[in-house]
Amino acid sequence: SCSLRFAPQAFHVPVDYDGIYQSPEYESDQVRALQSLDGSKLAEHPTYRAFFEQVPHFTGARLLDVGCGVGRFGHAAYSRDWDVTGIDVSPLAIKIGREFAPFPLRVATVEELISQGEKFDVVTAFEVLEHLSTPLQFLANAQRLLRPGGHVFFTVPNWNCSTVQSSTRPDWLPPIHLLFFTQSALQRAGGLSGLARVSTGVIRSDPLPRGSLSRARWLVRRAALLRRR
């Protein structure tokens, strides 16, 4: 009754995350972008901007980005004076990311950092929960890494989006994506995991830009997309 959709038949199917990081989609969207990355501009990405608008920053605040991939969000946070650490289970992603990152990237898990006594002011996980068969355990462990008063910020694909429901991209389907969240399902998961206050919202991935020239280009792009549909 929580509106979560899931694929239990895929829960124990091994996934080669190094292979995902070598896919044409990831190479185009993530890896190539590192070569000409501007962290301050990247911070205006709609997903990352939502983080900076929601989560308070103070001098020396430590941020852990779980499932950091090649470290894109880390660059955006670093440009805003966060003390960033990124972790991922893929050695390949960390190897690629280290070539460009001025902050530490590690092959590690949340459980390993807990055992090492690490503490952070904020834990982020962009597009991670949908890969997990035990999301409540992950959410509870993330809280164990927080200092008093800390925050978590997670994003997931929204099941109530036609692009998600109709996707044929292999990296958006089981066994890579196991869970398909609605806002109410995400709210419920946060509450069950013990988070004190949970708020959810929808991030528009292609919002109307602010500048007049950018808006004109946006309208042309959207019109072309509608014609293709």
**Helix percentage:** 40-55%
- The coarse overall form would be globular
Query: Low-confidence stretches at least 5 residues in length (pLDDT < 50)?
Result: none
What is the rounded distance between the termini?
A: 33 Å
Specify the biggest β-sheet: 5 strands, parallel
SSE string, helices as H and strands as E: EHHHHEHEHEHEHEHEHH
User: Averaging pLDDT over every residue, what do you get?
Assistant: 90
DSSP strand tally: 7
Number of helices: 11
Whole-angstrom Rg: 18 Å
Strand content: 15-25%
Strand order across the largest sheet = 4-3-2-5-6
What structural class results from the helix and strand content? alpha/beta
Key terms:
globular, five-stranded parallel sheet, alpha/beta, two-stranded antiparallel sheet, 7 strands, 40% helix, 229 residues
Describe the structure.
This protein has eleven helices and seven strands. The protein has 229 residues and is of the alpha/beta class. β2, α5 and β3 form a beta-alpha-beta unit. It starts with a strand and ends with a helix. 28% of the residues are buried.
How would you summarize the topology of this molecule?
Blueprint: E1 5-6, H1 17-21, H2 24-34, H3 39-42, H4 46-54, E2 62-66, H5 72-79, E3 83-88, H6 91-98, E4 105-107, H7 110-115, E5 120-126, H8 135-144, E6 146-155, H9 162-165, E7 179-180, H10 183-192, H11 212-228
Parallel strand pairs: 2-3, 2-5, 3-4, 5-6
Antiparallel strand pairs: 1-7
In short:
The protein has helices at residues 17-21, 24-34, 39-42, 46-54, 72-79, 91-98, 110-115, 135-144, 162-165, 183-192, 212-228, and strands at 5-6, 62-66, 83-88, 105-107, 120-126, 146-155, 179-180. With 229 residues, it is an alpha/beta fold.
